[in-house]
Amino acid sequence: MRPTATHSALVTGAASGIGRELALSLARDGVALMLADVAPDGLERTVADARLAGAEILDATALDVTDQAAVEEWVEKVTAEHGVPDEVHHVAGIAIWGDARTMPPEKWRRVIEVNLMGTVHVVQALVPRITAAPRRAHARRGRRGRRKLVLMSSAAGFIGLPWHAAYSASKGGVLAMAEVLRFDLRPFGVDVHVVAPGAVDTPLVRTIDIHGVDRANPRVARATALFQGHAVSPAKAAAKIRRGVARGRFLVTTSGDIAFGRWAQVNLPWGYKAVMRALNYGFRWASRGGSTGTPSTSSAVASPS
């Protein structure tokens, strides 16, 4: 069923990766879009492609989700002009990895500010509005008139991936927040979903900040190539997210290995530990001889994986 033109969605992190593909998927279904990203050039490209797909762009704004006042101002503006969105997909985030023994506090703080506090800012700005708004009269797949709040966590939010301590802290916080919101917001006509992508071949893969590791090192390049060979495309991840949300799933994964990993933590703990130890060894092998000797200063802003 093709949605009516009155159906709207708000997407952050829309300039690249999963956020961009979600925006384009919604555009192809005729959903009116409110888009934001910290990268204005990428956002412009998404807007142009969404318009080619036939979508109405209600708003497109360069936005830093760590700026609470800016998020509140933007949400107030778009909801006043276009009403409360039927769907919210908060995808904006960054990834910074590194050995917890050497990763500097400013990098811990940065990844938590963007991924966790950025989500808090979006939730604080939107939740009072989406819970107070009347339900839409038109029907979509799923329960009639209920709004959707979709937050982006990660497989690292619950799986002990090596060198992910800071990133996992930020994404685990999002997962825990969503677990509470799914019950807090249900009486107000809002369904909450949390996405835990596994390996997704976004631009982030090629630019990710791995503290103290030389990305040009052959071992690191080989490990990156193995990751990309296992990863799904952002378009496929977006399709799985939309399908999972339409089916009413709270936790949406983008590949079967992530769902199995979550199950194995409880039901096959010895197997889970063996795999995590092997991955940790692989990370140490890849970084051996590939240290930069100085802290890395770059950080990638894109859809998380």
TrEMBL record:
GO terms for molecular function: oxidoreductase activity. The chain crosses the membrane at residues 149-167. Keywords: Membrane, Oxidoreductase, Transmembrane, Transmembrane helix. InterPro entries: NAD(P)-bd_dom_sf, Sc_DH/Rdtase_CS, SDR_fam. Pfam families: adh_short. Belongs to the short-chain dehydrogenases/reductases (SDR) family. PANTHER family: OXIDOREDUCTASE-RELATED, RETINOL DEHYDROGENASE-RELATED. This is Short-chain dehydrogenase.
